[in-house]
Design brief:
This protein is of the alpha/beta class and 217 residues long. The chain contains 10 helices and 7 strands. The longest helix has 17 residues, at 33-49.
Length: 217
């Protein structure tokens, strides 16, 4: 059984779930519009450039989880999923996941975006295995902190390595689909790296290394 890995944002989704969560919070008046809109865009631009300080971003991005009760957050999340995520689920992504299932591969979504946002999205795609940045919880409520290594850049490799050891699996004949040059550390480890609607840096790297380039849009 081969392992098929999938990035989430701008790969299986036609957009970025992290950024859209920020947009949702602004639109609902849950956060200060001027400050949050500006910071949300600044961090997203840094991500696209490859200069994102993940710890700084997570302090910003997880703060709303710490300032509201989990029950309220989950109600907002259902609205967010309906308004922001359902419209950007991709039929071709479902087809790709289905082809790997039919081949007997094990599917795993691996994403820098935190589990609070991404777990129900993975469920919408029928993928039970998820590696994501883990928000800290104490006594059933979010603290705004992070547990363990953020699942970003080399952190994806670290988190996946631990998962492989725990499940006694290997990367033999493995696949990884991603849109972002931020995932080059992991793309370089799998047997089958695939660039999906890639950014310019990843497109160039894929061309130089003979990796397939596909579109799910």
């Amino acid at each position: 059984m081969a392992l098929a890995l999938f990035d989430l944002d701008n790969t299986l989704l036609a957009g970025d779930s992290d950024y859209l969560w920020g947009c949702f919070l602004v639109e609902r008046g849950i956060v200060d519009r001027e400050f949050y809109e500006s910071e949300n865009q600044r961090f997203y631009d840094q991500y696209l450039e490859g200069s994102l300080n993940i710890r700084e971003f997570l302090r910003f991005q997880l703060r709303p989880l710490a300032t509201h009760k989990r029950t309220q957050l989950e109600r907002w999340r259902e609205e967010y999923l309906s308004d922001k995520i359902d419209p950007i689920l991709l039929p071709k992504a479902r087809d790709l996941l289905g082809r790997h299932r039919a081949a007997g591969d094990e599917l795993l979504i691996i994403t820098a975006t935190n589990r609070f946002i991404t777990e129900p999205i993975a469920q919408r795609y029928g993928v039970s295995e998820l590696l994501a940045t883990e928000p800290e919880m104490i006594r059933g409520e979010y603290t705004g902190g992070v547990v363990g290594t953020p699942c970003f850049q080399h952190g994806k490799v670290e988190r996946l390595t631990a998962w492989l050891q725990e499940h006694q699996r290997s990367l033999e004949d493995s696949w990884f689909y991603s849109d972002s040059h931020n995932d080059l550390p992991l793309l370089g480890l799998v047997d089958h790296a695939v660039a999906v609607d890639p950014d310019d840096k990843l497109r160039s790297h894929a061309r130089d290394n003979g990796w397939p380039v596909i579109s799910l849009r």
